[in-house]
Write a structure and sequence with these properties.
The protein is an alpha/beta fold and 334 residues long. Helix 2 packs across helix 9, helix 6 runs parallel beside helix 7 and helix 10 crosses helix 11. It has a 6-stranded mixed sheet with strand order 2-1-3-10-4-11, with helices on both faces. Strands 7-6-8-5-9 form a 5-stranded mixed sheet, sandwiched between helices. The protein is globular. The chain has 2 domains: 192 residues, D-Maltodextrin-Binding Protein, domain 2 (3-Layer(aba) Sandwich); 96 residues, Periplasmic binding protein-like II (D-Maltodextrin-Binding Protein, domain 2, 3-Layer(aba) Sandwich), CATH 3.40.190.
């Protein structure tokens, strides 16, 4: 039988041999490459860039490649074509997944007053009733269109009561500025150009008057194939997002300053703060409650109902099926 001294000598020799054979530094884990499309507006990409600033993507083993698009419709078309794996967008996250195109897995923010209706009193529009028979520009199928539909219904009108001019938002805003249309339903930050170039223009109302009964959820969706095969990767995306969201909640002024300095240098800080004030974001614990009690599903379904009615979606997939809260809930269970 080996005595204690023999055991110590033998163990020490084995340890020395092991130390010689082992590499000095473990090889770094390869990062997972992701192709992520996004809209460059604070309500959609604030956590993306704060996660970048914090190093949260790399810390979670991710190497995201970001590509900017101008509308959510462009984003979903790109994902459908296989150009990106996932996306962060606005109201259309309640549209395409309801058509079976993509799976939503993360809520990003709630649009509170990001959509606004601007009118020109010099063209005969002073109150909402004056819109009857008038041309109103907006981008069909977007947050602004959802807001306009809510405003019409609240005022006992329908799209048939106005001359709805659908066009990309830059053109819609330009048409308003140049006096080709007397009203435009837009989303921030397009209001800044209107305010600066048409000082006599009037913001008639914003989407805040319909909150929360007509809340619009911004969020993330992955392609069907990516979602089915990469749920652990999506969980890492959620973890990186949570780091950024926690900073946004705990140190808001610092976070907005970072967004301005590093990612929105061309936008005055006051405008970034205005955009942030037009949305709602929550601490992780509150998000978890909204996921768990069905509130997010309810808000998504409200907007899906709009798309089903206005764009004639046949047999839309309900929000309870196209939105998967389990990834976020599993990450935050502790």
């Amino acid at each position: 039988m080996m005595d204690r001294r023999e055991f110590i000598v033998s163990a020490s020799a084995a340890a020395a041999t092991s130390a010689i054979a082992a590499p000095a530094v473990a090889a770094p884990m390869a990062k997972t490459k992701l192709r992520i499309g996004y809209l460059h507006t604070v309500a959609v990409d604030e956590q993306i860039w704060l996660a970048d600033h914090l190093g949260a993507w790399a810390r979670n083993g991710l190497d995201p490649q970001f590509k900017e698009y101008k509308t959510g419709i462009e984003l979903f078309n790109a994902m459908g074509a296989g150009d990106i794996d996932m996306l962060a967008t606005g109201a259309v996250v309640s549209n395409f997944p309801a058509r079976g195109q993509g799976k939503m897995f993360l809520a990003n923010s709630i649009e509170y007053a990001t959509a606004q209706l601007w009118v020109r009193e010099d063209m005969g529009v002073r109150q909402f009733a004056d819109l009857r028979g008038k041309r109103v520009a907006t981008t069909a199928g977007t947050t602004a269109h959802v807001f306009l539909d809510n405003a019409l219904r609240e005022n006992k009108m329908t799209a048939a009561d106005i001359d709805l001019a659908g066009m990309p938002m830059p053109q819609a805003v330009d048409a308003f500025i140049t006096g080709n249309v007397p009203a435009v339903a837009l989303w921030v930050p397009f209001n800044i150009a209107v305010r600066e170039k048409v000082p006599q223009a009037k913001m008639l109302l914003d989407a805040g008057v319909f909150y929360p009964s007509a809340a619009v959820v911004d969020g993330w969706a992955a392609s069907n194939t990516y979602y089915a095969a990469n749920k652990p990767v999506l969980a890492r995306v959620v973890r990186a997002w949570i780091e950024a969201n926690d900073m946004l909640m705990a140190r808001t002024n610092e976070a907005l300053g970072i967004l301005h300095d590093k990612y929105y240098p061309q936008v005055p800080l006051r405008d970034i703060k205005e955009q942030f004030g037009a949305m709602r974001v929550f601490p992780t614990a509150v998000w978890r409650r909204l996921y768990s009690n069905g509130t997010i599903v309810e808000w998504l379904q409200q907007v899906t109902d709009f798309y089903a009615r206005v764009t004639k979606i046949a047999n839309p997939v309900p929000a309870a099926q196209y939105f998967d809260p389990s990834i976020f809930l599993s990450v935050t269970k502790d």
